[in-house]
TrEMBL record:
InterPro entries found in the cross-reference section: GH, GH_1_N_CS, Glyco_hydro_1
Keywords recorded for this protein, A-Z: Glycosidase, Hydrolase
Gene3D superfamilies: Glycosidases (3.20.20.80)
Identification of the protein by name: Beta-glucosidase
Highest taxon of the lineage: Eukaryota
Protein family membership: Belongs to the glycosyl hydrolase 1 family.
Organism listed in the record: Neonectria magnoliae
Pfam families recorded: Glyco_hydro_1 (PF00232)
Length: 477
């Protein structure tokens, strides 16, 4: 029978800048996303996270909502600049920031909900970006991140599930190559063929890996024995299929795309080196691990955190890739050679549901990395045109309900039949929220948030579908 292990934890996920608001409250310092949103033209609807879902002021309401939906766990992120407003290891700690999150964790536990904390979900303290280039600084950034992590491990000892970074691929590529995310560096900055965007993302990715490794070592050396918890990183990536399955070059390209998106980070963590396909294309633009860095990075995952949304077809390209190529010399398509479509359109140009892809990628990752313990830390969908519908229509989100049903069943099959060692699942997202460069026009929530009327929350139909779904799949002891 298709089933999930009896210790399986499921719940919903959010991120600080997307839901908290209250950007000036209790001594919070600005992050690179505050600065980015204030730059005209960066956010589709000109909005920002200034108010968002006002979750900073509504912790009790959000916890009641989680309880009401049957959520066993909650994944959320901390705002680094609430805890250390300027971010650095010699900067003052803001006790009000720690107290806020410590109380939130206490209240979640009181409600029977297991907290999963992400230390950094993209909102780097702005001061660090201005002081030394933020994520670009190979020496300062990992040290400051380690210090911040230590402050948090010490200040919030009741949390036992830790994630260092959310999606380093997005921080690196969207922040330092396409420029669609903060801090918005783009290839426009470089006049030469081998300019900023052809180097910066690989430097940022490297520094995030080392910072992750440092925080994990700090946790294992000084906190794990007492705290008893576990720590890992969250990586995003799509399932891929060759555009022409009979063309070995497309088959290779489909594999290479996953290597450029996921193995970029996972290979150093599990094997201590970057994938050969990346070394071959990027050469010395990919930083080399020093022995010290390698010691921090290799073996630094207690679990694999997987964010997953979609699949695509991959077609190889011939010839030399441009210097700022980050995909692996290939193109991404939603139709294959036969004209089959990967899945229906959503509000997000990059996202089309394809549940079989979820199972296939779970298997791909498990085989490559030795069947590690996994948590699915994000999975969910937007719906085409959802934001233009009246509220009563939005609440009948059968498209999202079916997405969750299909994807969760695909995961349960991978667990039952393929040996995938998955122990948790988080639906993205608990609430409609600030969807980064798309502002509030794209809704990912299982709960409708009425931004015009005091951020009032209305659970959609999908919100209540997850509890019975998991109830039917999780083995009883
Ligand atoms: C994830 N892409 O981001 C993030 O972790 C969330 O904060 C976000 O709200 C959610 O997915 C929905 O977008 C991604 O362009 C953003 O491929 C963009 C992409 C992938 C993930």
């Amino acid at each position: 029978m298709v089933a999930l292990p009896s210790d399986f934890k499921w719940g919903f996920a959010t991120a600080s800048y997307q839901v908290e608001g209250a950007v000036d409250k209790d001594g919070r310092g600005p992050s690179i996303w505050d600065t980015f949103c204030a730059t005209p033209g960066k956010i589709a609807d000109g909005s920002s996270g200034v108010t968002a879902c006002d979750s900073y002021n509504r912790t009790a309401e959000d916890i009641a909502l989680l309880k009401d939906l049957g959520s066993k766990a909650y994944r959320f992120s901390l705002s680094w600049s609430r805890i250390i407003p300027k971010g650095g290891r010699n900067d003052p700690v803001n006790q009000a920031g720690i107290d806020h999150y410590r109380k939130f964790v206490d209240d979640l536990l009181e409600a029977g909900i297991t907290p999963f904390i992400t230390l950094l979900h993209w909102d780097v303290p702005d001061e660090l970006d201005r002081r030394y280039g933020g994520l670009l600084n190979r020496i300062e950034f990992p040290l400051d991140f380690e210090n911040y992590a230590r402050v948090v491990f010490k200040g919030i000892p009741r949390c036992k599930n830790w994630i260092t970074f959310n999606e380093p691929w997005c921080s690196s590529i969207l922040g330092y190559s396409t420029g669609s995310f903060a801090p918005g560096h783009t290839s426009d900055r470089s006049k030469s063929a081998v300019g900023a965007s052809s180097r910066e993302p690989w430097i940022v990715g490297h520094n995030l890996l080392v910072a992750h490794g440092r925080a994990v070592k700090a946790y294992r050396d000084d906190f794990k024995a007492e705290n008893g918890g576990e720590i890992g990183i969250v990586l995003n990536g799509d399932a891929t299929y060759p555009w022409d399955p009979k063309d070995p070059k497309d088959v290779e390209a489909a594999n290479r795309k996953i290597e450029f998106a996921i193995s970029w980070f996972a290979d150093p963590i599990y094997f201590g080196k970057y994938p050969d396909s990346m070394l071959a294309q990027l050469g010395d633009r990919l930083p080399t691990f020093t022995e010290e860095e390698k010691a921090f990075v290799q073996g630094s995952n207690d679990f694999y955190g997987m964010n997953h949304y979609t699949a695509n077809y991959v077609r190889h390209l011939d010839g030399e890739p441009p210097a700022d190529d980050f995909l692996g010399n290939l193109e991404i398509l939603f139709e294959n050679k036969r004209g089959d479509n990967i899945g229906p359109e959503t509000q997000s140009t990059w996202l089309r549901p394809c549940p079989t892809g979820f199972r296939d990628l779970l298997v791909w990752l498990s085989r490559r990395y030795g069947f590690p313990k996994m948590y699915v830390t994000e999975n969910g969908t937007s719906i085409k045109g959802e934001n233009d519908m009246p509220r009563e229509e939005i609440l009948k989100d059968d498209f999202r309900l079916k997405y969750y049903d299909d994807y969760v069943n695909a995961m349960a099959q991978a667990s039952t039949f393929d040996g995938v060692d998955v122990h948790g699942y988080f639906a993205w997202s608990l609430l409609d929220n600030f969807e980064w460069a798309e502002g509030y026009e794209t809704r990912f929530g299982v709960t409708f948030v009425d931004y015009e009327n005091g951020q009032k929350r209305y659970p959609k139909k999908s919100a209540r579908s997850l509890a019975p779904l998991f109830e039917s799949l999780i083995k009883k002891n």
